[in-house]
């Protein structure tokens, strides 16, 4: 009986210890939020400078700043109590991100913002600063790395009178036919090709052919035009 009472007392003390909240000072809170805001702005700047997609979204870029600050706040909150941290993990496990991400590189920026927020919330400021600097340098360096060959789509609309001369001109270019649409007044061709160093001088020769109505050259990534 005595051992049972002793076990209950030990259990109650353990629960009281787990339920004890550790306070976060206002200095730590303000310092953490300021650090998260600064690194979030750094992510914002890097994303803006290295963006290579179709349409730049200011609102989407702003979410990286807010995501860093919110993550840091969550980590500082759950670090005050073990029970609260377990409950927070369970609550966040039901959250699902359902927004379609067209560029896989955008996911990297999301993880960067979340990782920086976690490091700041855990007061690992050197990791947050040095890690963000390293990631930012890598993204800038890789974005400036010149690509020798880029894929393009060449769209040509021409009449039957230009078919023979156009065929001769296209034989000089390495290309692959993607689609051909025949209409009453003209024919529309969509060709895939790879160009070195943006060499588009052949476009002038194509447009000068009699019977070519127009020609459009579009740089694309394989999934969407840009």
Explain what the structure shows.
This protein is an alpha+beta fold. The chain has helices at residues 2-18, 26-50, 58-78, 82-92, 104-121, 125-144, 163-170, 202-207; strands at 149-158, 175-182, 187-196, 212-219. The chain has a four-stranded antiparallel beta sheet with strand order 2-3-1-4. Strand 2 and strand 3 (187-196) form a beta hairpin. The longest helix is centred in the first third of the chain and has 25 residues, at 26-50. The chain is rod-shaped. It starts with a helix and ends in a 7-residue tail after the last strand. The model is unreliable at 14-18 and 222-226 (pLDDT under 50).
SSE layout and pairings?
Elements: H1 2-18, H2 26-50, H3 58-78, H4 82-92, H5 104-121, H6 125-144, E1 149-158, H7 163-170, E2 175-182, E3 187-196, H8 202-207, E4 212-219
Antiparallel strand pairs: 1-3, 1-4, 2-3
List key phrases describing it.
226 residues; alpha+beta; rod-shaped
């Amino acid at each position: 009986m005595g051992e049972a009472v002793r076990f209950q007392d030990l259990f109650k003390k353990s629960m009281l210890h787990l339920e004890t909240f550790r306070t976060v000072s206002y200095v730590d809170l303000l310092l953490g939020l300021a650090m998260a805001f600064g690194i979030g702005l750094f992510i914002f700047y890097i994303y803006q400078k290295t963006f290579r997609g179709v349409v730049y979204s200011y609102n989407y870029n702003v979410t990286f700043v807010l995501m860093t600050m919110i993550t840091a706040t969550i980590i500082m909150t759950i670090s005050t109590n073990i029970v609260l941290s377990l409950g927070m993990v369970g609550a966040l496990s039901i959250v699902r991100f359902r927004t379609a991400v067209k560029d896989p590189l955008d996911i990297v920026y999301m993880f960067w913002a979340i990782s920086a927020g976690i490091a700041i919330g855990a007061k690992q400021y050197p990791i947050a600063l040095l890690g963000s600097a390293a990631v930012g340098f890598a993204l800038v360096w890789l974005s400036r790395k010149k690509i020798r060959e880029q894929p393009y789509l060449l769209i040509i609309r021409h009449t039957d009178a230009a078919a023979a001369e156009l065929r001769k001109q296209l034989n000089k270019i390495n290309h692959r036919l993607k689609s051909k649409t025949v209409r009453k007044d003209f024919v529309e061709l969509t060709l895939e090709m790879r160009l070195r160093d943006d060499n588009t001088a052949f476009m002038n020769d194509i447009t000068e052919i009699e019977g070519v109505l127009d020609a459009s050259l579009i740089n694309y990534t394989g999934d969407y035009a840009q």
